[in-house]
Design goal:
single chain; alpha+beta; Rossmann fold; 2 domains; 4-stranded antiparallel β-sheet; 36% helix; globular
C-alpha cells in the first residue's frame, strides 16, 4: 500500500455575502471549488511533484495533506490511517502528524519572529517527546543546523538576522526536527532570489 493516498479529494470554500445581504439583494450563494475529486498516491522514498498554474489548488491540497485544512469530501490516508478518523485518540493523531511535515512557501511569514532559532527547532522535539534532556536537545538542534548548512551558533539568533535563503534552510531544519516520513514543500523557492533557489533545491535532495 502507498504511504500517502488521496481519494476523490475535494475542497470548497463559501464566498457568499452574509445571509442578510443575500436576502435583501436576492443573490445566490457563491461556492468556490478549489479542489475537485483529486486522486494520487505517494510511495515511500519517492519524490512527487504536483504541477499546476497559479490558483489551481496546489497549496490547498498541501494544507489538506498535512491536516491544516479538512477536505469537504474524499479522504487522505497516511500509512493506511485517515487523519480525519474521529476514532483516533489524541496521542494517535499527534503521532500521525509527526510523520508528515511541511516547508511553507514564504520563509518570512512561517517563522515566529519572537523566537530564537533554537526554540523554533526545539519546539517539535519537545512537543513530540523525541529527545529527553536539555543537553541532548541542544545537540540535536546543532546537528540540524549543520545539516542544512548553517552554524550551531545560529541557534541563539532571531529569524530577522538571516537572509531569505537562510530562513528557508531553518524552515527545512524545523521540518526535519520531528523526524518525519514525508515532507510537503509548498513552492519552497518561489519567494527567493534565483541565485538562492538552486542552493535550497540542492539541500532538499
Amino acid at each position: 500500500m502507498s504511504f500517502v493516498v488521496a481519494s476523490d479529494l475535494t475542497r470548497t470554500f463559501d464566498l457568499s455575502d452574509p445571509w442578510i445581504v443575500r436576502a435583501l439583494t436576492l443573490r445566490p450563494k457563491r461556492i468556490l471549488k478549489a479542489v475537485d475529486a483529486v486522486n494520487f498516491q505517494i510511495e515511500r522514498g519517492s519524490t512527487y511533484a504536483l504541477v499546476g498554474e497559479s490558483g489551481s489548488g496546489k497549496s490547498t491540497i498541501a494544507n489538506m495533506v498535512v491536516g491544516l485544512l479538512q477536505p469537504s469530501s474524499g479522504s487522505i490516508t497516511i500509512d493506511g490511517r485517515n487523519l480525519a478518523d474521529a476514532s483516533l485518540s489524541r496521542r494517535e493523531q499527534q503521532a500521525q502528524r509527526r510523520r508528515i511535515q511541511m516547508v511553507f512557501q514564504s520563509p518570512y511569514a512561517s517563522l515566529n519572529p519572537r523566537w530564537k532559532v533554537g526554540d523554533i527547532l526545539g519546539e517539535p522535539i519537545r512537543a513530540f517527546g523525541l529527545i529527553d534532556g536539555a543537553k541532548a536537545q541542544q545537540t540535536r538542534i546543532a546537528e540540524l543546523l549543520e545539516q542544512v548548512g548553517l552554524s550551531a551558533s545560529d541557534a541563539g539568533k532571531y529569524p530577522h538576522e538571516f537572509s531569505g535563503g537562510q530562513r528557508q534552510r531553518i524552515s527545512i531544519a524545523r521540518a526535519l526536527s520531528s523526524q518525519p516520513e514525508v515532507i510537503i514543500c509548498d513552492e519552497p523557492t518561489s519567494a527567493l532570489d534565483v541565485s538562492v533557489q538552486a542552493q535550497v533545491l540542492n539541500l532538499l535532495k
